[in-house]
Amino acid sequence: MAQRPELQLSFTPGDCPDCGSRRADMPPAAVAVPDDIDLTARDFEGLRQLMLESLVLDNPDRQRWSEADLEVAIVEVLAAGLDQMSHSIDVLFAERFLQTARWPRSVVRLLTMIDGVAPAVSALRRLMREDERDRFGFDDPTLAPAGALFAALEAHPQLTETAKFAALEGVNRLVSCISLDDLRDHLREVPLFSQVQVRYLTEGGIAIYEAAILLQDSNWRLVSPIDDLGQFATDFIDYFRDVEADLTPPADGLASGSTGLPALTDTEIRQTSIRAAVTYVLQPLMPIGTRFRLIEGQTIGVYMRLCVEVAPTYFRSEVGAAVRDVLSTGPAGLFQQAKFGFGQPLYVSDIQEALSALEGVEGVIISHLQMVGVPGSEASNVGILIPPANRALALDADNPGPETGYYTLKLSGGLIG
User: Which of 71, 220, 308, 403 is exposed most, by the fewest CB atoms within 10 A?
Assistant: First the structure.
């Protein structure tokens, strides 16, 4: 504890005899000793070193320490016990999170908190033999799903990661459409749709979620039966079954889910129209008291007049066929329906770049570009054609019309033939 210093009164010879000064001799400041003790030690070696350094600081007069000393032996015993406690704390902390949990009881408890038991059970069920499912109680209606999952993970710890992955995948799956973004994301998973636009409105006091869509094929309609879609019919049935199975978690957590609607066979689905089939599985996703309406989106055709200069050593017919492939809705076409959403603009530079990249094309001139039937909709000076927000641009020369567009192509140069 610091003490008050003693003041000494002194006079300087030759100065004023009444003028003096009081001085105090302060003790020297303590030498700073750096503290290199690691107070964050958690393992045996770190804890042992920490306690031995504390002993040395508490006994500065003692110059010799050996492993046979009683104090050192006690320090090592304490370090071993603290190391075990530290490891236990780490393990318990890891068991609080699903990503790091390893104990079956912890995994099942965490999966129960996020409603992930049902998808985990379904995933493990597919990997096990029939006798194993019976042994763990997967087919026992009196056993809770969590109990069956716990028994399976105890017997097969290597399946823990599979159960957690299936549970997290099930949690992240969209099973309700509360907002417009939810509905838009769900409709984009339908294999028949290329573009989706959603909006919310009320009619007669009834809330309606309305979705305008463009189908993958311009020849399809929402009233077309699923059976008329060719290969897409199989893809849609797979989508239908996935939504039907995952829409509502099963009551027992062991069997496939159910929407609560009458089950449809594949034949019945194929005979149903696109609108009816999609509405059938999406209506239960809507908030209570709302309706879901599916309508066909509107397209607006593009009219384009262009001239292509063909290289002298190339035939016009070959270059013209390549140009028509680019200006089509085919796999290599620039006007695939999936590329143009509602209100998405068309850039003249994109067309020129795609055509100029063709072999045998020396130059491209686009003299006119506008929306069919819309006066004054010519492309602006900067070369951009912007449709209304509720329309999507389309150009399908094989089916010319106001909604599909058309173009006039002139080929110059090159070889005739």
Answer: 71
Digit-coded pLDDT (tens) for 210-225: 888 888 877 788 888 8
The reply to whether 74 falls in a domain is no
Is residue 215 within 8 Å of residue 194, measured between CB atoms? yes
Looking at the structure, tell me whether residues 184 and 239 fall in a common domain: yes
Last residue of a domain, one of 139, 172, 205: 172
Residue 256 vs residues 163, 242, 260: alpha-carbon distances, Å: 16, 10, 12
Q: Is this model's pTM higher than 0.85 or not?
A: no
**Domain edge (last residue) among 140, 172, 204:** 172
Note the maximum CA span of the chain. Answer: 129
Closest CA to 164 of 94, 255, 246, 98: 98
What is the separation of C-alpha 78 from the centre of its chain, rounded to a whole number of angstroms?
Answer: 48
Strands 391-394, 298-315: pairing kind: parallel
DSSP assignment of 133-193 equals HHHHTTT-TTS-HHHHHHHHHHH-GGGHHHHHHHHHHHHHS-----SHHHHHHHHTT-TTE
Tens digits of residue pLDDT in 360-382: 888 888 888 888 877 777 766 66
Please give the residue range of the domain that contains residue 331.
299-415
Residues contacting residue 112 through CB under 8 Å, at least 6 positions apart: 146
Close Cβ partners of 40 (under 8 Å, ≥ 6 residues apart): none
In three-state secondary structure terms, 67 is coil
Distances in Å between the alpha carbon of 369 and those of 357, 379, 380?
Answer: 20, 6, 9
Instruction: Please give the Cα distance from 172 to 15 (Å, whole number).
Output: 92
Task: For residues 196 and 163, state if they share a domain.
Answer: no
Q: Count of domains in the chain?
A: 3
Q: Is residue 78, in this structure, part of any structural domain at all?
A: no
The span from the CA of 237 to the CA of 269, in Å, is 7
Measure CA 222 to chain center: 30
Residues 48 and 70: their CA atoms lie apart, in Å, by 14
Q: How far apart are the first and last CA of the chain?
A: 110
Q: Which amino acid is at 293?
A: R
